[in-house]
């Protein structure tokens, strides 16, 4: 029996591996920064308006003077200006108007239903009521001479005057800015630092002779209209 002949298998032919692809060029475009936004406010960021700057407040008391109105129980500090930031603190002083006791018109605006609402009851003032302005250690007393309801465009209420007067005003009616309620007053007293004038002695009533009765005082006509304000038709009735 013939011996088997062993044959070697031909070596497997392998194809060479393709060369590696070059790495992609780096992206030089800068991506926008990623801002972490809380989930609850993520949808509101695009619609949110920038906040208004907070009013600058100087340390200490920066009020000009104090206004006191006994009829409505008001005693408040008055600050310079008439912006919303100023009126949020209390009554304001119209820039350029007179100061207490000076010849001219002291113009004082204020809120009725916003913030400290100093002029909430401004419509309760009557002719003869006192408006006291205190500043620099002096007190000046004005009395109400009339009131008016005007439109917001009636800037004449803050015009200068040839006499020492005061004008306070606020929105009207309460909770609306459709109109303005204006109170006018005039100075009637010297500053408190001056010596008060001596009061005259009380008048003595003459007694009728014995056997005669004194006649009753004349009756007043209650239907007579009150005196005119002198500025606009009276509305304080």
Given as residue ranges, the uncertain stretches (5+ residues, pLDDT < 50) are 36-58, 194-237
Oligomer: single chain
Strands side by side in the biggest sheet: 3-2-1-5-6-8-7-4
Number of discrete helical segments: 1
The level 1 CATH classification of one domain is Mainly Beta
**What is the helical fraction, as a range of percent?**
under 10%
Tell me about the largest β-sheet: 8 strands, mixed
Order of helices and strands: EEHEEEEEE
Shape by Cα distribution:
rod-shaped
Distance between the termini: 149 Å
Structural class, judged by helices and strands? mainly beta
Return Rg in Å: 42 Å
- CATH topology-level fold name of one domain: Sortase, Chain: A
Q: CATH superfamily of one domain, called what?
A: Sortase
Architecture (CATH level 2) name of one domain: Beta Barrel
Strand content: 15-25%
Give the total of beta strands.
8
Mean pLDDT: 73
């Amino acid at each position: 029996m013939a011996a088997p002949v062993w044959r070697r298998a031909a070596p497997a032919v392998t194809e060479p591996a393709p060369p590696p692809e070059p790495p992609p060029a780096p992206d030089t475009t800068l991506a926008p920064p990623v801002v972490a936004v809380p989930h609850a406010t993520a949808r509101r960021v695009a619609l949110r308006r920038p906040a208004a700057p907070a009013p600058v407040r100087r340390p200490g008391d920066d009020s000009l003077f104090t206004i006191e109105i006994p009829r409505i129980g008001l005693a408040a500090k008055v600050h310079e200006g008439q912006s919303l930031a100023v009126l949020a603190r209390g009554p304001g002083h119209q820039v350029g108007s007179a100061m207490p006791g000076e010849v001219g018109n002291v113009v004082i605006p204020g809120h009725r239903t916003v913030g400290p609402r100093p002029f909430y009851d401004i419509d309760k003032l009557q002719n003869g009521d006192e408006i006291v302005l205190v500043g620099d250690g002096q007190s000046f007393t004005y009395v109400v001479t009339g009131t008016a309801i005007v439109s917001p465009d009636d800037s004449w209420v803050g015009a200068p005057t040839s006499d020492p007067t005061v004008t306070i005003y606020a929105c009207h009616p309460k909770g609306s800015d459709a109109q303005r309620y204006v109170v006018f007053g005039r100075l009637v007293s010297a500053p408190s630092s001056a010596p008060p004038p001596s009061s005259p002695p009380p008048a003595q009533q003459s007694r009728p002779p014995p056997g005669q009765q004194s006649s009753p005082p004349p009756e007043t006509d209650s239907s007579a209209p009150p005196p005119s304000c002198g500025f606009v038709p009276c509305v304080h009735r």
